[in-house]
Design a protein that fits this description.
With 400 residues, the protein is α+β, with helices and mostly antiparallel strands. The protein has 12 helices and 19 strands. It starts with 7 loop residues before the first strand and ends in an 8-residue tail after the last helix.
């Protein structure tokens, strides 16, 4: 940052991931001053591997923030996904079922790089290595973020504090526990995710239901594949050799016909736990929560990054309205507005997860129900449209 460190701002944003950075850009465009505090260094933030599917509304917001140029050049537009089960595949065509909506494949790391570059070029202050320790005065008109930066303890007085600092962040802890309700579900399996230096074996994502467990074929680019296998909780990535990974992927993606899974060098392995989590409300006093600080979804529905983006789009509009008109109406409605969409996304993510994964010890009755549901999606335009509408993204402000 090439300016003196501020002691006061209108909006203090804790967390320099995609949600915090997108909020800062939207506020900057609206003339609302803000400061972003990020505990990690720039290199770490720009290399965090996360989601790579962007809904139409997320893409529109990135373009509106000025961060759409590289996305438009390098992002991969996808008009559907393929479901596989019983050695057959069925494609869900998004535009024909949703009135033209689609999704983009563009890695979160690239979104973050784009937003950071803009922020450092002409945006409000962005402090890396600034570790927020607490927030005081959440129920007053001047909350304060207490943080450590460059070895010194500092304070940032704000009109509003926004927690974009994830599930383990400090901002949610500023809300008394008696004021929060928490809803949570854990799943009895995880994902083993791998990056491979090999062109994707498909043009669009493949979601595979298999007696051996779930598998997903995605991509990061035209030369890098991203693949996932359902594995037991507690699995160590090192326990899976590259050969075993490719053989298991091939078995789970098996389909009648001439499709073939291309193999290549695996450059990264990681295990992702599966959980659902929602905290209510998303606002208390002058503290507002967004993204993983308020909710987590299993990755099966590709909702995590998009839910976070939706939160900050709604929040940016509310803060801009306050700045322009003095009205707090949109801010007062922020939590309810977001939670209606959050719960729909939670349901969709749960539906995709439980339909496509095999529980340990799952009985034949449950498996037949899953196959029946997949058959229904293939046979019914209405069922396919329900999946497509949820996957491409519901309205930012759902009907009451």
């Amino acid at each position: 940052m090439n300016r003196s460190e501020p002691a006061r701002t209108t909006v203090g944003i804790v967390g320099g991931g995609p949600a915090g950075l997108l909020l800062a850009r939207l506020l900057h465009r609206a003339g609302v001053d803000c400061v972003v505090l990020e505990s990690r260094d720039r290199g770490y933030v720009e290399q965090r591997q996360r989601a790579g599917i962007l809904e139409q509304a997320t893409v529109d917001a990135l373009r509106a923030s000025g961060a759409g140029d590289r996305l438009d050049r390098k992002g991969l537009v996808h008009d559907g996904i393929e479901l596989r089960w019983d050695r057959r595949g069925h494609r869900i065509d998004f535009p024909s079922l949703t009135g033209g909506r689609r999704v983009w494949v563009y890695a979160q790391t690239e979104v973050v790089k784009d937003l950071i570059a803009l922020q450092l070029h002409d945006g409000p202050p962005l402090l890396f290595g600034a570790t927020a320790e607490s927030v005081s005065g959440a129920d007053t008109d001047r909350p304060v973020i207490h943080y450590v930066h460059e070895g010194r303890r500092r304070s940032l007085a704000c009109d509003w504090v926004v927690g974009c600092d994830g599930f383990h962040g400090v901002v949610r802890r500023a809300v008394p526990g008696s004021e929060l309700r928490t809803f949570e579900r854990t799943y009895p399996y995880s994902w083993l995710g791998v990056l491979a230096d090999v062109p994707p074996s498909c043009d669009e994502l493949i979601y595979a239901h298999s007696p051996r467990g779930f598998a997903l074929h995605s991509m990061r680019s035209t030369t890098v594949s991203r693949l996932y296998l359902q594995v037991p909780n507690g699995t160590e990535p090192s326990s899976w050799s590259d050969t075993r990974i490719w053989e298991e992927l091939e078995a789970r993606f098996a389909v009648d016909g001439d499709w073939r899974l291309e193999r290549g060098p695996i450059t990264q392995k990681a295990v992702l736990p599966m959980r659902s989590f929602v905290t209510e409300p998303m606002r208390w006093g002058r503290v507002l929560l967004a993204g993983d600080a308020a909710h987590i979804v299993p990755p099966t529905g590709a909702k995590g990054l998009n839910l976070a983006a939706a939160d900050v789009i709604v929040l940016a509009r509310a803060l801009a309205a306050l700045h322009d008109t003095g009205s707090t109406a949109l801010l007062d409605a922020y939590s309810d507005t977001c939670l209606r969409r959050v719960w729909r996304a939670e349901h969709f993510s749960w539906f995709m997860t439980t339909t496509l994964h095999a529980d340990p010890g799952q009985d034949g009755f449950t498996t037949r129900l899953q196959l029946s549901q997949l058959d229904r999606i293939a046979a019914s335009p209405h069922a396919a449209a329900e999946l497509a509408e949820n996957y491409t993204g519901l309205p930012l402000v759902p009907p009451s």
